[in-house]
Every structure is written in C-alpha cells, then in structure tokens.
Write a structure and sequence with these properties.
single chain; mainly alpha; two-stranded parallel ribbon; two-stranded antiparallel sheet; 20 helices; DUF2786 domain-containing protein
C-alpha cells in the first residue's frame, strides 16, 4: 500500500494532521524546497514525545452482530453462511430465516404480547416445548434489537464523518489517486477539519493552515486539477468559481439533498429529546452526542448548500424560505464555566431561539424569510453574513499550525501516557472515578 492509498484510507479515519503531512511528503516527491520545508516542519511533530498518541486514530466503528449470529446458528441449526454480521439488513434477513421455525414475525417482537400461546403454537405446527419456544423467541428478539442498534451506530458514524468532512466520503479511490496534488490537499484539509474540540471558550481553529495553503497553491498553479473533487471537501468560493456550470449545479443538488436528509433526522431527535431551545443547555441523560453530530452535519450541509447558491447567484430563490443554523447543546458544567468566566450564551444561540426550527422551514410548516434571519441577527448584534446565517462562512487568513494536543474529554494533557491513565479513570468525564486505575476511594469525576 503506497502513500496515496494510505491517504485515501485516512478519509474514513481520524489521523492527526501531522501524520497526514508525513504521507504527503512521501506522496509528492516533486515538492519544491520551500514547500517541503513548510510541510516538513509540521510532519516533524508526528513523532514528538513518545512517538504515539493515546487518542484513537479512528471514529468509533459499530460492533457487528457476529456473536448473536453465532448463537442463533447453534440454537436454530441454520447455516447462515451468507449472513454479513456487520449489515443490519442481512442480520434481520437471517433472523427471519431462522425464525421461520417458530413462525416468528419480525414486526412483532414484544415478549409479553407477541408470543404464541399453546393453541397458536399447535396451529402453526410448532412442536417445541414452551421453554424452548421462549428461548428462541428471546434470541430473535435480541437479534432484532441488535440490528436496530447496529443501524443507528452506522448512521451516526456516517453523520459524524459528514459533519467533519462533508461529501469527502463519496470520493472513490481511482478518482482520488488520479490527482495526487488534489488528493493530498483533501486528505490534509480533512484531517484538520476532524480535530477534536477542546474544552475551551474559544471556537474551532481555522482548518486552512500553512500546509493547506501550500497544497492548495499547487492545485491552483497547474492545469487539470480536479476542482469538482476538491469541492466535495472544501466548498469555498475560490473552489466553486473554478467549477463548470453543470458541476456546480450537480454539487448544489447534492448539498441540498443532504440538508433535507439530515433535517429529517434532527426533527426525529428533537421530538424525542427534552432540550431547552432558549439555552441549549442539557443535563446528564440527554443524548447530546447524537444531537451534536446531527447539528454539525446539518450545518455542514447547509453551509455547502448556501455556498453553492451564492456561487450560482441563486440566493433570491430562497428569500422566502431561509432555514437557520442548528445549535449544538452544551453540558451544564461547561455553561457554568462560561458564566464564571464573565461570558454567557453565544449570541448565535439567541438567534436560533428567536427563529423557527430549520426543519419546519424546509418542510413548509413554518415560515422564515431571509429578512427574518437578518432581523434576528441584528437584534442580538450578530453579523448575519460573517457568522454564516445568510452567507458562506469565511475563515480569515491562514491559521498557524500547532501540534495536535493530547485530550482527555476535551482537556489538554501534555503526556499521552498520563492521558491514557486519566481517560481510563474517567477523569473530566463526570463519571465515577475508577479506583483500580487511580487507587483509593471512589471519587466523582
């Protein structure tokens, strides 16, 4: 596997930018001396300290149903050699195949109300004892539930990757390898976008740093760059202006479809949650991870959609139906820290609370014009264009790279070994500290 293949695999993972810079040096042997110096300075940090990081280099991958499938094979005596334990549809199909023995209906899995009684079992030709029938019913019910959890985990991983990297996941390997300069920019810029959030009052860093600038410059300096591929990751005006009209139109459609798709998931999550729209502060028990992943995905899709509309000069078409951004939720302890530091709610939260829910605007059940969004922004002293409410958000200048910090639940720790100990002990997580790691009595984290 060469450097380009490893860079391509990094699109579906979470490597540190400095590790990607090492692969860029290998993938682009024709770098000029100044270019190699800039990228090399960043790559040198890949082996800092002990030469490794305690943080995962990947997003959590769903745990498949291999254990449940193996148990069902043994219990039912069904081969199931073709079942894919990582595919929830395949798992459900296998459960339905095995469940034919007990006349099991995948749509009726409640243990108290959906089991056959003695007469129903006899009518269905089931000759098992009640105990054996119940054992099989429980097994199928667990498989059905596992398939549901597996599908949710797969969907949330896709959403998380989309929030961090946009449409990058749709790039195929051959297209990626066909343009090494564009590929290296995409891989590095994506790694910068995937940096974890720190427990700090400041926002995210600008992902466009000096290495991204060098790689982007190589793309602009030559003919034949695949700008349509770059636009899947970086839909900035500098990129969109280089697309043909048909390419821009296709990209606009993809961002629009993604916006509406995530909006449907957000609506479902909102209806099943108890989130205070006025503050977006939540307490323990709320599924904040899912909400924040969906909010990030929606804002990424909406941002790409609006960028394409501006580039195509089509924003007047949406003057009467302009969905706002979606705010992430904040834990109560972080909100308290903001207050103690003399701050308060982010002004964007007040704008969000003032406007109709974006998914209701998109499906036509609520009205929100661009003028409404601008009025809400001005009311709370927010620049509607610079903050991304009515225009593509622009990052000012080129950021300076700083080594990726070792984080424990958002808190920077200098030593990766010590960070691993703190992470295992649940320090900074709000959970009970694990005494077998730190020793002594249980203490609140």
């Amino acid at each position: 596997m060469d450097a380009l293949d490893r860079l391509y695999r990094s699109l579906d993972a979470r490597p540190r930018p400095e590790e990607v810079a090492v692969l860029v040096l290998e993938a682009l042997p024709n770098l000029t001396r100044p270019e190699r110096a800039v990228i090399g300075d960043v790559a040198a940090h890949a082996s800092r300290r002990f030469g490794f990081s305690g943080m995962s280099a990947d997003y959590a991958r769903p745990v498949g149903a291999a254990r449940q499938v193996a148990a069902a094979r043994s219990l039912f005596g069904v081969d199931g050699a073709d079942v894919d334990p990582d595919d929830p549809i395949s798992v459900l199909e296998f459960a339905a195949l095995a469940g034919a023995e007990i006349d099991w209906d995948p749509a009726r899995t409640d243990f108290l109300t959906d089991r056959h009684n003695r007469d129903a079992r006899a009518a269905a030709g089931i000759e098992l004892s009640k105990r054996q029938y119940n054992k099989r019913f429980r097994m199928l019910r667990r498989m059905s539930a596992k398939a549901g959890r597996l599908e949710h985990a797969r969907r949330m991983r896709r959403v998380t990757l989309f929030a961090a990297a946009g449409l990058t996941g749709t790039i195929d390997r051959d297209r990626f390898r066909a343009d090494p300069d564009a590929a290296c920019f995409i891989a590095y810029y994506t790694a910068r976008r995937k940096l974890r959030r720190e427990f700090a009052l400041s926002g995210r860093e600008n992902p466009f740093d000096q290495v991204a600038e060098v790689l982007f410059g190589r793309c602009t300096a030559r003919e034949g760059t695949d700008w349509a591929m770059i636009s899947l990751t970086c839909p900035s005006r500098e990129v969109l202006d280089r697309l043909r009209p048909d390419q821009l139109g296709e990209l606009l459609g993809r961002w629009s479809a993604a916006t509406r798709s995530v909006a449907l998931m957000l609506a479902e999550q909102w209806d099943s949650s108890e989130i205070d729209k006025a503050t977006m502060v939540v307490r323990r028990g709320t599924d904040s991870s899912s909400w924040n992943a969906l909010a990030g995905a929606f804002n990424a899709a909406r941002g790409g959609w609006i960028a394409c509309l501006h580039a195509a000069g089509l924003t007047p078409l949406l003057e009467d139906a302009w969905p706002g951004k979606v705010m992430r939720v904040m834990a109560a302890d972080l909100a308290a820290w903001h207050r103690q530091s003399g701050g308060g709610l982010h002004p964007d939260t007040s704008v969000w609370a003032r406007l109709p829910l974006p998914w209701q605007v998109l499906d036509g059940t609520a009205t929100c014009t661009r003028a409404d969004v601008e009025a809400a922004c001005h009311e709370h002293r927010v620049d509607p264009a610079r903050s991304g409410w009515t225009a593509p958000r622009q990052h000012g200048g080129v950021a300076r790279f700083r080594p990726t910090p070792e984080l424990v639940h958002g808190v920077a720790v200098s030593d990766p070994l010590w960070a691993m100990v703190l992470r295992r002990a649940h320090v900074f997580s709000g959970k009970l500290l694990r005494t077998e790691v730190l020793g002594g009595q249980d203490l609140p984290g």
